[in-house]
Amino acid sequence: MILLTWVTYDQYIQQTMQISAMWNHSIDLNLIYSILDFTQGKIDQIVECLSMFEAWKLQQNNIKKYEKKKKEFIERRCCNHQINLFCIFAAEKEFLISTPIENAILATVNNGLPFVKKDLKKHL
User: Fold this and answer.
1) Which pTM value belongs to this model?
2) Which end of the chain, N or C, is more open, meaning fewer C-beta atoms within 10 Å of its C-beta?
3) Alpha helices of 1-124 — where are they, by DSSP H?
């Protein structure tokens, strides 16, 4: 069997696993990967950003914001709810200049997500 991998995926696989372990595997691997790709592998920035995001998610109204827009994300083929939610967070904090849906499209549709459900089970 020949396994073809994506160069960018290979570039961030080890860092993704390290960060996932730091968070006791409680954060979506594709979310970690997407942030790594965006920050070009700057782990300190990612850890800080994930801490802020996790605190932001605990606020009840933030999840409700996403629930109202969830259908629009899915219609645009943005089916990773953690990435979608993160894009709303990043737009609110002005980390990204595009709309949350545009950023989710970049992360999921244009760039692609390397991890599938079996990867999640394998690393837990």
Assistant:
1) 0.82
2) N
3) 7-22, 29-39, 43-57, 60-75, 81-92, 100-105, 117-122
